[in-house]
Amino acid sequence: MNEKKSYICRCCGEIHDELPMSYGSDAPVYFYYIPEEELESRVEMNDDLCVIDDEHFFIKGCIEIPVLDGEGPFIWEVWVSLSEANFETTIDFWETVGRENELEPMFGWLSTSLPCYPDTVNLKTMVHTREVGYKPFIELEPTDHPLSVEQRDGIKLKRIQEIAEEICNQNNKVTND
């Protein structure tokens, strides 16, 4: 398949060699509501797990979107809330080889605000554990939300370029403010 990955960004006017095929969030959306001086006492976090106030539990996973006219998937790395019981189970199996065969999918709420979509916070998800070393697969509830539709039906490279340009535009606004 002949795919053109380089593009001229309408936001910054630069030629980019290839389309970014993933974006991620450093923390659950709720993290950003905590005053900076309270973060150390209220948040325990690493690259994959986060606990806020010893009562809100989050895991980082991947929403994978099939790419219809190129190599994929396109990936959003997102945070999802889990119940305390499911979070503890996840911790118990964190280093267990074969955990993907042991753990049933777990319900969670999407806890990341994604650009280029209507509000994504609190979309219903199922968290599918994968083998040790891989972030969980996040399956959105099948609804008419555009992110859910894209996960089911896939997207084209043109849509990925639109996402890249929107994120570039948002980053430029933050830089210029």
UniProtKB/TrEMBL annotation:
Family annotation (Pfam families): DUF2199
Organism, scientific name: Heyndrickxia camelliae
Name by which UniProt lists this protein: DUF2199 domain-containing protein
Lineage: superkingdom: Bacteria
